Amino acid sequence: MLTKTLLPALAALFSLTSAQNYPDQSAPFSLKISDAADASLNNKYLYACHSGAAIEQLCLGDKAEHADAYSTYYHNTSEWSSGTGTLVWNLPYSDGIASSGLTFAYNPASNVVLSYFIPGDSNAVRIGFNEENKLFVPAYIDDVLTPGGEKPFYNWEVCTTQFSGYRYQALAWVTVGTPVTGSWGCVSVNVTKEAI
Ligand SMILES: *[C@@H]1O[C@H](CO)[C@@H](O)[C@H](O)[C@H]1NC(C)=O
Ligand SMILES: *[C@@H]1O[C@H](CO)[C@@H](O)[C@H](O)[C@H]1NC(C)=O
């Protein structure tokens, strides 16, 4: 299989090239859906689902269905990052792991952004958790304010996604407004950290 040979190569590449921006790793946790506009999604968990060589999305599942997939995540931060940093998942391969950061795939024609893990943190999105353990993305809303215009956003949606040929019910992000037509069945949600 292609991935068997590709993964160690990729992992080696990323560990060689990456000086991690956020080297301080948290205790492990799982990620759970809350505040869903469709209440049947609440209390489902997010597991890493294969979406291409060394790429995983965050798919929706029940704990009982995917016991081993109840993916363990970490929050990498740094001394200076005020509690924000990278959401990390460890991609297993034959003799080790490739630490992979959550990354956004922006689409110029849509306000729906797909999210996926890929080894390294070179394009990882910066995230944080609030006092209720809810996952947020800090962003600037006003370029006129310098500095300090940053605030937490919670624009998570669970959508039927189509990413490099894989179709899943997976975690996405909406930049502004409601998801544009063409994004299937998006439901707004929050994502909550749960200690393992
Ligand atoms: C997260 O932190 C650990 C511990 O320093 C490091 O080994 C790993 O490469 C980091 N992962 C990312 C994606 O930055
Ligand atoms: C997610 O949590 C934030 C912060 O508590 C809240 O403002 C937002 O309305 C929540 N999202 C949903 C879909 O309820």
SSE map:
Layout lengths: L1 H16 L6 E2 L3 E6 L10 E6 L5 E6 L11 E5 L7 E9 L2 E10 L6 E8 L8 E2 L5 E6 L9 E4 L2 E8 L2 E9 L9 E5 L1 E6 L1
Antiparallel strand pairs: 1-5, 2-15, 3-4, 4-8, 5-6, 6-7, 7-8, 8-13, 9-10, 10-11, 12-13, 12-14
The structure holds 2-acetamido-2-deoxy-beta-D-glucopyranose (2 copies).
Give the tags.
single chain; 196 residues; mainly beta; Trefoil (Acidic Fibroblast Growth Factor, subunit A); 10-stranded antiparallel beta sheet; 3-stranded antiparallel beta sheet; 8% helix; globular; binds 2-acetamido-2-deoxy-beta-D-glucopyranose; DUF7907; Cell wall protein RHD3; signal
Structure in words:
- The protein has 196 residues and is mainly beta.
- The chain has one domain: Trefoil (Acidic Fibroblast Growth Factor, subunit A) (Trefoil).
- Strand 7 and strand 8 form a beta hairpin.
- It binds 2-acetamido-2-deoxy-beta-D-glucopyranose (2 copies).
- One 2-acetamido-2-deoxy-beta-D-glucopyranose (NAG) binds next to loops.
